[in-house]
Design brief:
Elements (H helix, E strand, L loop, with lengths): L15 E2 L9 E2 L9 H4 L1 H17 L1 H44 L3 H6 L7 H7 L4 H16 L3 H9 L6 H17 L3 H13 L7 H14 L3 H14 L6 H15 L2
Antiparallel strand pairs: 1-2
Helix pairs in contact: 3-6, 5-6, 6-7, 6-8, 7-8, 8-9, 9-10, 10-11, 11-12
Length: 259
């Protein structure tokens, strides 16, 4: 491929005329146009430019000072909010430490309500909303509520939880599916299991989440949908341990769908 020849008329070789107005772009002169650069070649032009700038500042002093004050307040406010959030998170982390100990020991009432000295998960999730600890408290409180049979509470907590960890977030979606299953909300459960399976899809967890989705579809008597879900396990996760069971259940649901 030939290159475009570089000539005196090439764009990169054309002289530029720079406007003294900073808001105006540079323009190109014609072949015989002036090559004068007013700011670099004419000291008077530079002096006029500086004088105009000083005049602008004098005429708009109050406006500029107001803008400066807004910027300073925004910066100071941002720093203050960051420091406040950090202190809140530290308090929440301290309370979380004891609550998680109770949670791991299966002392769910103390984990949720606290022990009189330290706040429980319920308080941490509500009073420290927006902090990392408050977010994590929603996850623990959701699981604890599931264990206690408080399924709607579990849904409320888990829906307020979010994580950048793909596996943890998928797990939260699956738990939301479990809570909805317990409330006989099979369609909602299937949707959450589907989210779990497709959130960072992988051969270790996705097949299990898809099996749960198929079960929810069967409970909703959506047998054709369940067949499709089993197909996905069989075709997309050939090495998964759930494949044989998926084949058997698929054959059963195909028969049910044909009735």
């Amino acid at each position: 491929m030939s290159k475009i020849p570089y000539t005196r008329n090439s764009p990169q070789n054309r002289p530029q005329r720079v406007s003294t107005d900073p808001l105006q772009p540079a323009t190109h002169e014609g072949e015989f146009g002036s090559t004068e650069h007013p700011l670099l070649e004419d000291p008077d032009a530079l002096a006029i430019r500086l004088a105009e700038s000083e005049d602008f500042v004098r005429r708009n002093k109050n406006l500029l000072l107001g803008l400066l004050a807004v910027v300073v307040l925004a910066v100071v406010g941002g720093i203050g909010y960051y420091l406040w959030r950090s202190s809140q998170d530290e308090k929440a982390q301290t309370a979380m430490f004891q609550a998680v100990n109770y949670w791991e020991a299966d002392s769910l009432n103390k984990a949720m309500k606290g022990d009189g000295q330290y706040d429980g998960l319920t308080t941490i999730a509500s009073e420290y909303n927006g902090t990392k600890a408050g977010n994590l408290a929603n996850f623990y409180a959701g699981v604890a509520s599931l264990k206690q049979g408080k399924y709607q509470a579990a849904i409320d907590y888990l829906e307020d939880f979010s994580s950048n960890d793909l596996l943890v977030q998928a797990r939260a979606y699956s738990l939301l599916g479990d809570a909805n299953m317990e409330l006989n909300k099979y369609k909602e459960a299937a949707d959450f299991y589907d989210k779990a399976a497709n959130y960072n899809a992988n051969e270790y967890f996705s097949p299990e989440y898809l099996m749960k989705k198929a079960t929810a579809q069967e409970m909703a008597k959506e047998y054709s949908g369940a067949v499709g879900t089993y197909d996905k396990i069989i075709n997309d996760y050939e090495g998964a341990q759930q494949v044989n069971e998926a084949r058997q259940l698929k054959a059963r649901d195909e028969a049910m769908a044909g009735k």
